[in-house]
Every structure is written in structure tokens, then in C-alpha cells.
Design a protein that fits this description.
Elements: E1 34-37, H1 39-46, H2 50-58, E2 63-67, H3 70-83, H4 89-100, E3 105-107, H5 113-119, H6 125-137, E4 140-143, H7 146-152, E5 158-160
Parallel strand pairs: 1-2, 1-4, 2-3, 4-5
Length: 162
Amino acid sequence: MGGRGGEAPAHRPGREDRCGPRARGPPGTRLTRLIALDASAAVEILARSKAGQTAAALIANERLAVPAHFDAEVYSAFRRHFRQGLLTRQELDRVTAHFVGLAAERVPLLPLLAAAHVLADRLSAGDAFYVALARVRRIELWTADARLERAVAGFVKVRLIA
């Protein structure tokens, strides 16, 4: 778990994947709090749904943290939409290029495993890592999954993107 006890490793410059225009925020602004973003919320943001556009505006100057499996989950969701005919190839290419550039700290799964294991009896294994990240880092979890929001309310601070 790096660091002392069961704590997550402290922030170290250069340890996160920051690329794209959100890496430093707009000129004259500063990034403020850290938010755990789950794949469902990212899909809404990247798909530019009404809820996603609202969420994107709210997190414009926030720092994001995601568990390492986030990229696979987001890509999988958009591939599923493409296979179902909900996205064209051009739209899939656009959204893939945008999420690759998402400025977020990618947190390794192994340091979160113990916390996720405790949660996995009531959540999917994938969701347990998002909640574990929020719990370990003591940060708010943003999700578009109403079932997840209900399941973890009171356990971690959670915000539903709807």
C-alpha cells in the first residue's frame, strides 16, 4: 500500500497521467479538490449528455483520480454502444481520443485491493475499486450509476450525475 499503515501513497509530482487540455486547468485558475470519478460518470461526460455536460462544467477545475481499470471500463462501454449501433465509428474514434486525454491520476489497483475486497460482497468487483479509492483517499465519488449511489450512501460521500 505504499506509505505508512494502510494509507494510499502521498501525491508525488509526475506520478499521475496528466495529458490533454485539463492538465493544468485554464489560465488564471487553480485545481482545487480531488474527486474520484467512476466510468459511468465519465461515459456521461464524454458522450456529452445533458447530465454529462453539467458534470463537466462542475469538475472543470477539479483534480480527478480513477482506479487503473477505469480506462478499460470506459472503452468497453463505448465499444458496447458502437456494437449496438448507438455510436458511429467516427463518434467512437472521437470519444476514444478524448478519454485518452482525460487528466486524471490513474491509481494502481493493488493498493486498493484490501479495501475493495471488504466491499465486494455488496458491489461488483469493479465498482468496489471506485468506492475503495474514495474511501482510502477520503474524497467524494462521482457516479452516474443510481444503484451504486444508493449502495454506498453513508459509507463514502457520493454525488450522482443525473
